[in-house]
Amino acid sequence: LSFQHSVVRNALFCLETAANEKENHVYTKALLAYAFALAGNREKRKALLDSLEKEAVRKDGSVHWQRPGKEPEADLPYYRRRAPSAEVEMTAYVLLAHLTSQPAPAQEELAFASLIARWISSQQNPNGGFSSTQ
């Protein structure tokens, strides 16, 4: 369906209303940023990505997002716990939002996206898969 179709217009209006909420969960912001990237709404996409960047967890040369109020994990030698599937999913949606840009993403955005991709790749299990079903 085109963006002019009434169903699509209504859906985008609903998403814009949700994006304007005062308090949005980080997972919701990630989904909205990707949806607006796909819809070509650069302003909403940028506003959500800017908000998400403030909530990003930067660690060991990578970037990811986690649920608010999550207990910090203990650093155990020789053991690396994989993130819950929701955190892998929301981080992947933020990566998609960064890479789904018209015109093509700027160099700075690609550099930031590579930090996100680094974290996602660190979450792979020994078989090459992820805990996420998405």
Automatic annotation (TrEMBL):
The record's GO CC annotations read: extracellular space
Query: Domain Alpha-macroglobulin-like TED: where?
Result: 4-134
Q: Name one Pfam family in it.
A: TED_complement
By its UniProt entry, which InterPro entries does this protein fall under? A2M/Complement_sys, Alpha-macroglobulin_TED, Terpenoid_cyclase/PrenylTrfase
Q: SUPFAM superfamilies from the entry? A: Terpenoid cyclases/Protein prenyltransferases
Which PANTHER family does this UniProt record tie to the protein? ALPHA-2-MACROGLOBULIN, MACROGLOBULIN / COMPLEMENT
What protein name is recorded for this chain? PZP protein
